[in-house]
């Protein structure tokens, strides 16, 4: 049987029933069509440096403009794309699109702009992933320091063998390696030691209400310090209030992203924001 627990989004199912779900089959068919018809778009959410208040880069977040259903959330189609393998061509398209865009922004004067792209488990377990990424960077003509890759703890737990070598290759090129949604997965602290991360992204669930929630405050303070002691940069996700921002600045968190500064936006809006020089007042 299929059961969804609201909030946490746990799903329990038996594989054969899952395969038979007609809604999923329909969604899968339209995902395939969507790739051909170019219904996907990359949105960008600015990432802001907390010591100067300036935009240093952006996270690339895929959007699906379905002709009938309208905007479909990645939370809905990424898992299915993952299951069907469509995430591989889709993920490569996102990488290519985001890198090409970031290069245009670099060329127009934002010379250290970096774009962060999410990798799924299926993409990450592809053989010769680092060669594929190098090919994409070369085809677009961008320097590897233009790119950051975000991986969640669960991806690393599932692909531990070989992952360290792959990440080392990518890191050596100058690609920023980030652990995403830190604190929500199953990884132990030893992962921070074993994997060659450059950046730790603290999950939104610890950031929210950080000024009124004593437990979140304790976790945030400790994680920022831990990360710094391990020579990692820290980005806080999902910053929504001035109070959260003040706390993060005071704790010397390195960067933030969140609705307080901007939602994920189309490339043209991102460009306007860059050229207007929008910044955080700290
Ligand atoms: P994520 O990588 O952790 O991305 C951050 C999510 O938090 C985004 O949701 C973003 O819109 C949302 N967010 C940012 N700031 C705030 C805030 O202040 N408040 C709140 N409530 N939310 C905020 P989005 O765009 O719906 O993406 C959801 C997830 O889908 C991503 O989580 C990522 O895991 C996955 N995803 C998105 N694009 C891609 C992609 O191109 N490839 C892969 N493999 N996964 C993707
Ligand atoms: Mg991410
Ligand atoms: Mg995240
Ligand atoms: Mg997340």
From TrEMBL:
Transmembrane segments: none annotated. Residues 24-278 form the EAL domain. This is EAL domain-containing protein. It comes from Funiculus sociatus GB2-A5. The lineage of its organism: Bacteria, Bacillati, Cyanobacteriota, Cyanophyceae, Coleofasciculales. The chain holds residues 322 to 603 of 603 of the full protein.
């Amino acid at each position: 049987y299929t059961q969804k627990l609201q909030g946490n989004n746990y799903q329990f199912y038996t594989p054969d029933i899952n395969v038979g779900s007609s809604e999923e089959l329909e969604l899968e068919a339209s995902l395939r069509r969507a790739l051909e018809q170019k219904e996907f778009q990359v949105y960008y959410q600015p990432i802001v440096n907390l010591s100067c208040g300036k935009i240093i880069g952006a996270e690339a977040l895929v959007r699906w403009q379905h002709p009938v259903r309208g905007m479909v959330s990645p939370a809905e189609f990424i898992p299915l794309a993952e299951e069907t393998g469509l995430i591989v061509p889709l993920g490569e398209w996102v990488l290519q699109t985001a890198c090409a865009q970031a290069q245009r922004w670099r060329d127009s004067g934002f010379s250290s702009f970096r774009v962060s792209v999410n990798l799924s488990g299926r993409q990450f377990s592809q053989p010769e992933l680092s060669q594929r990424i190098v090919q994409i960077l070369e085809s677009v003509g961008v320097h590897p320091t233009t790119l950051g890759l975000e991986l969640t703890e669960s991806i690393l737990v599932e692909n531990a063998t070989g992952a360290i070598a792959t990440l080392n290759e990518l890191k050596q090129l100058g690609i920023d390696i980030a652990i995403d949604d830190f604190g929500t997965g199953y990884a132990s602290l030893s992962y921070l030691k074993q994997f060659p991360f450059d950046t730790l992204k603290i999950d939104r669930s610890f950031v929210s209400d950080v000024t009124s929630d004593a437990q979140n405050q304790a976790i945030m303070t400790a994680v920022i310090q831990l990360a710094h002691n391990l020579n990692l940069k820290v980005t806080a996700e999902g910053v929504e209030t001035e109070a959260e921002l003040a706390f993060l600045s005071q704790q010397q968190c390195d960067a933030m992203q969140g609705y307080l500064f901007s939602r994920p936006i189309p490339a043209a809006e991102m460009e306007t924001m860059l050229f207007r020089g929008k910044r955080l007042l700290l």
